[in-house]
Each structure stands twice: as structure tokens, then as C-alpha cells.
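The records we work with from here on pair a chain with its fold. Taken together, the C-alpha cells spell out the fold as the letters spell out the chain. To see the layout at work, look at the sequence and C-alpha cells printed below.
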Amino acid sequence: MYSTRAVGLAPAFRQAALRPRNVARNPVLRNLIAQRTIQTESLPPSAEQQILNQQRLRRPSSPHFTIYQPQLTWIGSIANRVTGAGLSVLLYGYALAYLVAPGTFDSTHVIEFIGGLPDALKYAGKAILAAPFAYHSWNGLRHLGWDMGKFITLKGAYTSGYAVLAATAVSTVALVFM
């Protein structure tokens, strides 16, 4: 075999030996080529999902936000979404409760219930409701400014972000002590 490599005839011999007409005549070559290097197994369709889940578990995960330094822009965006969702859940939850039991959740009963609470609990409840309301409101105005083309630069985004945080703090304190 060494001599055929030196002369460069090995590819020509392989090509001649593996021509379709030569393979069809020679049973040894036919069996050699017909052998598979992998084995397959017939599985039911329900096993497909399990195999995919196992493959996904072994797949490396891409970098997540936990490896990045927190920035005011994306923390503000996440906080805006969370406060909006929280306020929506409270509003729709109260509306559904009022529809289900209007006698229990009418304004008279709610005022009586809140009036009977200790002052510390009232102030805590007001702060818990006022902070997301104030933040979401001020950040909504910030987004309206962005829609008008204001504060779009990086410096403007940070300046308006800090302004929203300051306005939220002042508004929350004002709402709590009203």
C-alpha cells in the first residue's frame, strides 16, 4: 500500500473499486458499504418531547442579566413594568371582588375597615400603594417625553431617570401624609 501512496494511485484504486457496477458484483464490498456506523432505535412519538427536554438541559445557557452591572435604564424599565402589572392586578382584583360581593366591597365597608386599622398599618399601606403609583405615573411622563424626542441621549436618559426617582420619593411622601 505504501507504494501506491507514494505514486498517488490510492485514490484511483479506491474510486475504481467502489464504482457502483463493481460494488454490485462483489458481495464483500456490497456488505462493507451497506454497514451503518450508527444504530437507530424506533421510539414512540411521546418519547420525542423527553429527548428534547434532555437535550435542552445539557445545552449551555447564554449570559443572563445577572452577569451585567445594573444600570438605571434597564432597572427603570423593569420597575415600570412591575409597577404597571401590580397596579393593574390591584385594580382588576378590586373590581372583580366588587362584582362578586358588592355589599362587602362597597365604599362604606372599605372605609369602615380601613378606619379601624392602627395608624402605623394605614401609613404602611398608603406607602405600599403610593410608591408604585407615583413611580409609574412619573415614568409614564418620562416615556411621553421620549415619544416627543426629548431626553433620548444617554445623558438625558440618566437625567430623566434620576428626576423620576426624585419625583417618586417626594410624591410618595406627599401621598402618604395626605
